[in-house]
Structure formats: structure tokens, C-alpha cells
Amino acid sequence: MKDTKPELLIPANCLEVLKVAVLYGADAVYIGGEMYGLRARATNFSRADMAEGIKFAHAHGKKVYVTTNITAHNRHLSGLVDYLKELSCLDVDEDGKPIRPDALIVSDPGVFTLAKEHAPEIDIHISTQANNVNYLTYNFWHKLGATRVVSARELSLEEIKGIRENIPDELEIETFVHGAMCISYSGRCLLSNYFTGRDANLGACTHPCRWKYYVTEEKRPGEYLPVFEDDDGTYIFNSKDLCMIEYIPELVDAGINSFKIEGRMKTALYVAAVARTYRKAIDDFFEDPALYRKNLELYRQEISKCTYRQYTTGFFFNKPKADAQIYDSNVYVKDYTFFGIIYEITKDGYALMEQRNKFCLGDVLEIMEPDGKNLSVKVLDMKDEEGNPIESCPHPMQKFYVKFSELPKTFDLVRGPSKSGDN
Ligand code: SF4
User: How far apart are CA 199 and CA 230, in angstroms?
Assistant: First the structure.
């Protein structure tokens, strides 16, 4: 089993990001529909987009999983039946075969029962939300028909190894290896519901764990007494982000089948950079562990070009201590800015783009290619959609044409070092 390459599982919040994930190295992509998956604030997929995304992924030999992992209340159940029936046949392909996801990610036993009944052709993966921390739990779900169980983020590598030794080979272990951590236990968190009425377990978390906190005294309402960790204040629940790019051998040795990246609200740039870097690290390791060790610095550099909150190895080696949290700020580290995706190359060598951040004629930018190359390019010419010359692209989502000093390809991404004021 340790000779088999693990799956790289990447999140996507829209069709464009799904295509980027597939092209930049994902083996599988997980997405949410418009209902019943956590991450309600991610843009999510309509039925038509989901069908198109699954067709695109399957055409590239990749899989798509759909999250259906809310903790369902009675009021959700009848709608769920219709939704599951819809998922079991979103559309039909040219050969008349149904287009459907490869798996549903489920946490609630009631939803599991409905999925078995109304979408029996689709595999079921048990979500991390179900707090899967021991091998009996894994075997329980396996007996009921699940093909994969996602481990709780609170497990160490030793514990995951112990699970692998006590479950059947065909039952897959999926584990988060990169991305944001919840400060609560496996996402079972009441902070958001308590403070804002928006329930994290129904996908509506407002992220109060990232807020800045003060103490108030009962008789002095409105007087905020700061709790100082240092001069910047205190962010008592603010975890660092998980990053295991330097520990691929240990993750493989633990018998994990699927390396999962967190972040169904992330941009195409983040998804591309993380997918491409983990793809390379996994492929290098399986080609030759010495090559992997030699390239560690390269992976570190590439992964730090994504937005992140400083990194931790979470629970994998030890129980996290105080240094797994960030006490002085809730801002992301953002060294690189995303300028846009290249949709098309015209006959005369211009790249059609849609603006994500402003850049100007003469700027030197970086083009990211799916195969791992980065090209440093100068902006030689810019035209609006009607072909009129322009000197910059100030408007969000503006479409325009650019001539770069080197010819890019469709689905290359354009980025550059961040300046203040970039989004
Ligand atoms: S408030 Fe923070 S810890 Fe709680 S569910 Fe939301 S992201 Fe997770």
C-alpha cells in the first residue's frame, strides 16, 4: 500500500477553480452544491456547472466529490431526498451515460441513510465532521458501506498508522495535510452560532476564532480591558495554518490514501500554487526520495507564494502547543498577488484575461504554468475588449488583451509580488 501514490484532493468553489485544480495537479476535486454542504459562503456549484465540472474532470481522468456534510435537522430531510436524486443523474453524456459525482462526503448518519437509498450508485466518504478518531469507527462505517473515512484533524501520525493496521486495505483514509485549522474539535464549534446566529455546522461560520478579543467588566459596559499577549493585542483562538509539504514520506508511511487540501473559499491562484507544489512533492518522492529531499527548499518557496497565516504541523507529531497559534494579528501573509487567468491566445499572440488585480503597461509579472514552470514576463502592450490601447486594467473583472514578452498558454495564471493596496 505504501508503494501506491496517494491521491491529491483539492477544493474548488466554482467551475473555473475546478478546471485550474485539475490542470495544476489534482487527482480529485471536492466541491459543494448550492445546498447541504458546509461552506455556505463559498460560491458553490449550480447543477449545470457541477455536470460540466464532472465532465471536465473525468475527461482528464480525475474524480469529483460533492460535500453533503451538514448536520441535518428534520427540516432539511425532504429537500435532501430531491437533491440526492438530482446528484445521481445531473445530466447524461454523449453516450447516454449519467453524469454524477464519484463520491458524496457525508457526516450525518441520517444523510448517509438517505444517500444509500436515493443515490446508491455514488460512493460515500465519511466527513471529518463525524469526528473519526479510531479504527472501530472506520470499521463501523465500512460495514455500512462507506468506501473512505476522513480522519479527524486531531489525530497524530501514530494514531493514523494504528487505524491503518486495523482496517481493511480497501477502506481508504483521507487526511487534511494543508490549510486552515479550526480551533475547535474537528469543526464542532458553537462560537459562530453563539455570537452571530450563523451555524458552523450548517456551513455558515463567520470565523469568530479569528476575531480580536477584549475583556469587559460587568459594571462597566463598553469599557474594553485589553488582554495583552503583546502590544498588538490578543487573538486567543487564532490557529496557524497546517502545512505538511516537508513531511510527505511520513504521511505515506502512515498509510494515508488521500492527501486533502483545505479551502473551498480560496482563489484560483491559491489552488493552483498549492496543487502544483504538492503534485511535484508527491511525484518527486515516488520517483526518488533523494530528489524530494533535494527539492524541499523549492517546495517551501512555492508554497509561501500563497496567502497563509504562518504554518504549523498541527496534531501530526505532538499535541499543538502555544506556538501553533498566532496571538498578535489575524491577517494573512500574502507575498504574491493574483492578476488573472489566461483564457485564450489570439492569432497575433495577445492573451485574453479577466482582471483580478490592477497591473500596468511595462510591469514585470510572473506567469505560472501547470507543469511547474514560472516565466518572468514584461507587459509589452494592452488593449481593451474593443481593441483600443489601454495603459492599465483598473476595473475588477474587466476583460482585456495583453501582449507579454513571452507567449503564455491558455489556463496559465498571472501573478506578481504584492504591493500595498493589492487585494
Ligand atoms: S469559528 Fe473558527 S473554529 Fe469555529 S468553526 Fe468557524 S473556523 Fe472553525
Answer: 32
DSSP code at position 103: E
User: Cell 456549484 maps to which residue?
Assistant: 45
Residues near ligand 1 (Cβ within 6 A): 182-184, 187, 189, 191-192, 200, 205, 207-209
> What angle do helix axes 47-59 and 15-23 make, rounded to 10 degrees?
10
d(CA 332, CA 334): 6
pLDDT tens for residues 148-171?
999 999 999 999 999 999 999 999
Taking only Cα atoms into account, the Rg of the chain, rounded to an integer number of angstroms, comes to: 23
Taking CA atoms only, the protein residue closest to ligand 1 atom 8 is 182
Which residue from 88, 128, 71, 121 is spatially nearest to 105, judged by alpha carbons? Answer: 128
Give the Å distance between the CA of 90 and the centre of ligand 1.
32
**H-run or E-run covering 140:** helix 135-144
Which domains, and CATH codes, for the chain? Answer: 7-185+239-318 (3.20.20.70), 336-417 (2.40.30.10)
pLDDT bucket at 190, cuts 50 / 70 / 90? confident
Q: Is the pLDDT of residue 229 over 70?
A: no
Residue type, 352: L
* For ligand 1, atom 6: residue with the closest CA: 207
pLDDT for 326: 65
Residues 129, 130, 133, 137: what is their CA dihedral angle, to the nearest 10 degrees? -160
Residues in the chain: 423
For residues 410 and 394, is the Cβ–Cβ distance under 8 A? Answer: no
